[in-house]
From TrEMBL:
<keyword id="KW-0067">ATP-binding</keyword>
<dbReference type="InterPro" id="IPR044765">
    <property type="entry name" value="DDX47/Rrp3_DEADc"/>
</dbReference>
<feature type="domain" description="Helicase ATP-binding">
    <location>
        <begin position="87"/>
        <end position="258"/>
    </location>
</feature>
<dbReference type="InterPro" id="IPR014014">
    <property type="entry name" value="RNA_helicase_DEAD_Q_motif"/>
</dbReference>
<dbReference type="GO" id="GO:0003723">
    <property type="term" value="F:RNA binding"/>
</dbReference>
<feature type="short sequence motif" description="Q motif">
    <location>
        <begin position="56"/>
        <end position="84"/>
    </location>
</feature>
<dbReference type="Pfam" id="PF00270">
    <property type="entry name" value="DEAD"/>
</dbReference>
<dbReference type="InterPro" id="IPR000629">
    <property type="entry name" value="RNA-helicase_DEAD-box_CS"/>
</dbReference>
<dbReference type="GO" id="GO:0016787">
    <property type="term" value="F:hydrolase activity"/>
</dbReference>
<dbReference type="GO" id="GO:0005829">
    <property type="term" value="C:cytosol"/>
</dbReference>
<dbReference type="GO" id="GO:0010467">
    <property type="term" value="P:gene expression"/>
</dbReference>
<feature type="compositionally biased region" description="Gly residues">
    <location>
        <begin position="456"/>
        <end position="469"/>
    </location>
</feature>
<dbReference type="Pfam" id="PF00271">
    <property type="entry name" value="Helicase_C"/>
</dbReference>
<dbReference type="GO" id="GO:0005634">
    <property type="term" value="C:nucleus"/>
</dbReference>
<feature type="region of interest" description="Disordered">
    <location>
        <begin position="1"/>
        <end position="47"/>
    </location>
</feature>
<dbReference type="GO" id="GO:0003724">
    <property type="term" value="F:RNA helicase activity"/>
</dbReference>
<dbReference type="InterPro" id="IPR027417">
    <property type="entry name" value="P-loop_NTPase"/>
</dbReference>
Length: 482
């Protein structure tokens, strides 16, 4: 590798770039993005897969040698379909709307072009990535640091629930990449002296539909107003909705639409999706039966509420299972600690609300169980996308009670297919009834003790590090409790 390609990024200021001249007619027109779609049927006929484009390398896409080396070190053997389609377009300097199912490698699809442009023209505050949840923001930062390790990229994470002072210090050190949740980013733009994004060159909105679902729309408008117009913008999501049209027009200039999904609710082919129709009163027993059937495999267990997440964690522990809860009421260090224990294999079961449904890359998940069905089909797609990632196979099973039939039918309609029923024998399931009954009593006692402790300490929702910010609407959205 040449010395030029190995050079380290510095604090060099921005270099002058030629601004493109656009006619007023073009500015005023409603932008109709051009579309590049990878048709799944065509890909199958040609012997290709959507998971990896085996006849291409990252170098073939135009990625520089030092970043190719970083990809090799991380075990990226070949670019995925979304990477193969979007990276050359991004390297050519065009805005992108990227649509791909979760687990398809979207992060590297926007990180590699940004890092390559940064290598050519080093400057602080070069790129901004906005994500809907804190955990996803930390994960994106880790990916940037890993891919940019050979060029010493500096990255700062700016999220709610943490003290603002250390974040302000990190921003004062002029990182190359800022990864943030919108609410906390706006706080720093309004209150942190000396912090500005006027020299920004790249903006990424990851899980953009979720950003709008969480009512971040007005905050995004304020952020976009202080960003320079002369920038490149990339918008990525697994699903696309009409809500995103206005954001697309406001944020992107003549974007190219890259889609590798055949529908808005596409899931990967190596994911086995099943359901189990059961009486509501036996829900806990069927859960333990399934976990016994998949013993030794890692599992994410999704629930609808924080209370149910905590109760199931106590229930599973009473039965000797290594389970750990993850929900929005935990402080940030506890949330990251739970994720890290699960990633490291110290816990087999992660019991979580939808705070864990989006974007989190945990490569070793074998099974996703929907203890409670999600409120909408998009969330279902993201939940089951926690398994069968990076070309691996996985299983997703949903428990459907007599109260969930309408919701389940909506999910099947959105997926465009009927799911198969998971085989079970009632006699085999009810063997666990007595042990589950004992564990339920233990869980109730533990929940009572937890609630009493919270009352006694004056704890509860919103307690913890507020980072010097008044509690308000943005705190609730940053909390993302599912």
């Amino acid at each position: 590798m040449s010395d030029v390609k190995r050079r380290k990024l510095s604090h060099d200021g921005p270099r002058p770039t030629k601004k493109s001249k656009k006619s007023s007619r073009e500015d005023a027109a409603i932008i109709q993005p051009r579309t590049i779609a990878t048709e799944p049927d065509l890909a199958e006929e040609e012997g290709e897969t959507q998971d990896a484009v085996v006849d291409k390398t990252f170098a073939d896409l135009g990625v520089t040698e030092s970043l190719c080396d970083a990809c090799t070190n991380l075990g990226f053997k070949a670019p995925t379909a979304i990477q193969a389609e979007s990276i050359p377009i991004a390297l050519s300097g065009k805005d992108i709307i990227g649509l791909a199912e979760t687990g398809s490698g979207k992060t590297a699809a926007f990180a590699l072009p940004i890092l390559q442009a940064l290598l050519d023209k080093p400057q602080p505050m070069f790129g901004l990535v906005m994500a809907p949840t804190r955990e996803l923001a930390y994960q994106i930062c880790q990916q940037f640091e890993a891919l940019g390790s050979l060029i010493s990229v500096r990255c700062a994470v700016i999220v709610g629930g943490m003290d603002m002072v250390p974040q302000a210090i990190a921003l004062a050190k002029k990182p190359h990449i800022v990864v943030a949740t919108p609410g906390r980013l706006l706080d720093h733009l309004e209150n942190t002296k000396g912090f500005s994004l006027r020299q920004l060159k790249y903006l990424v909105m990851d899980e953009a539909d979720r950003l709008l679902d969480l009512d971040f729309g007005p905050i995004l408008d304020k952020i976009l107003q202080v960003l320079p117009r002369d920038r490149r913008t990339m918008l990525f999501s697994a699903t696309m909705s009409t809500k995103l049209d206005n954001l697309t027009r406001a944020a992107l200039q003549n974007p190219v639409r890259v889609s590798i999904s055949s529908s808005s609710y596409q899931t990967v082919k190596n994911l086995k999706q099943q359901y189990l129709f059961i009486p509501h009163k036996f829900k806990d027993i069927y859960l333990i039966y399934l976990l016994h059937e998949f013993a030794g495999q890692t599992c994410i267990l999704f629930t609808r509420t924080i209370n149910e997440t905590q109760r199931l964690a106590f229930l599973l522990r009473a039965l000797g299972r290594s389970a750990i809860p993850l929900h929005g009421q935990l402080n940030q260090s506890a949330r990251l600690g739970a994720l890290n224990k699960f990633r490291a294999g110290h816990r087999d079961i992660l019991v979580a609300t939808d705070v864990a449904a989006r974007g989190l890359d945990i490569p070793s998940v074998d099974l996703v169980l929907n203890f409670d069905l999600p409120p909408d089909s998009k969330t279902y797609v993201h939940r089951v996308g926690r398994t069968a990632r990076a070309g691996k196979s996985g299983v997703a099973i949903s428990l459907v009670t007599q109260y969930d039939i309408e919701l389940y039918m909506r999910i099947e309609r959105a997926l465009g297919k009927k799911l198969e029923e998971h085989p079970s024998e009632k006699d085999e399931v009810m063997v666990f009834a007595e042990r589950v009954g004992d564990a339920q009593r233990v869980a109730i006692t533990e929940m009572k003790n937890t609630h009493e402790k919270q009352k006694g300490s004056g704890g509860g929702k919103g307690k913890g590090i507020a980072g010097g910010r008044a509690k308000g609407k943005r705190d609730g959205m940053d909390r993302e409790e599912g």
